[in-house]
Design goal:
Elements: E1 11-15, H1 21-28, E2 39-40, E3 53-58, E4 61-70, E5 77-84, H2 90-104, E6 128-135, E7 138-145, E8 148-156
Antiparallel strand pairs: 1-2, 1-3, 3-4, 4-5, 5-6, 6-7, 7-8
């Protein structure tokens, strides 16, 4: 389960939810994360995106991912926020969305996961956000720039093998 969307490669660093650097990094578009080199994203680390918030980087693009479980344990859903900087290309944000969506599959079967990513708290002034839905093994994503929907992408996830 590797990310091959347009050959993009994201790196990630995990931060505590209350850490002010989470949004500061997006606002400031820092070339490094607090002077440290972010770890290269690897397949086993996708699951870690569920733990609190993460800052993802791809070139000059920055994304902040955060998740929280909602609903009862029997009908577990995850609310996901994924805010991206305005320097993020359509290929880059699609890859970031793919990483977050795939990470959910590590802890919950696709058919039990619904993900809504909204622009309730935009990452940076003039930036864009992603709206997506993951359900029944199908993902849908759209980029919003200045309130207008653009760059719609639709693709399916592989079925779980027994």
């Amino acid at each position: 389960m590797s990310d091959v969307t347009a050959g993009t490669a994201w790196t990630v660093e995990h931060l505590e939810p209350a850490d002010p650097r989470v949004l500061d990094l997006v606002d400031q578009h820092l070339p490094t994360l607090d002077g440290r080199s972010p770890r290269t994203m690897r397949e086993p680390e996708l699951w870690d995106l569920l733990q609190g918030r993460s800052v993802l980087r791809c070139g000059s693009a920055v994304a902040v991912a955060g998740t929280e479980p909602i609903g009862s344990r029997a009908a577990q859903h995850h609310r996901v926020h994924l805010d991206v900087s305005e320097t993020c290309t359509p290929e880059q944000w699609a890859a970031a969305f793919n990483l977050v969506a795939n990470s959910l599959r590590f802890t919950c079967p696709v058919r039990k996961v619904s993900v809504l990513v909204d622009d309730a708290s935009p990452a940076a002034a003039g930036g864009c956000a992603i709206l997506g839905l993951v359900n029944e093994g199908f993902m849908r994503a759209a980029r919003f720039v200045n309130g207008q929907r653009r760059d719609i992408v639709q693709y399916s996830t592989p079925e779980e093998t027994p």
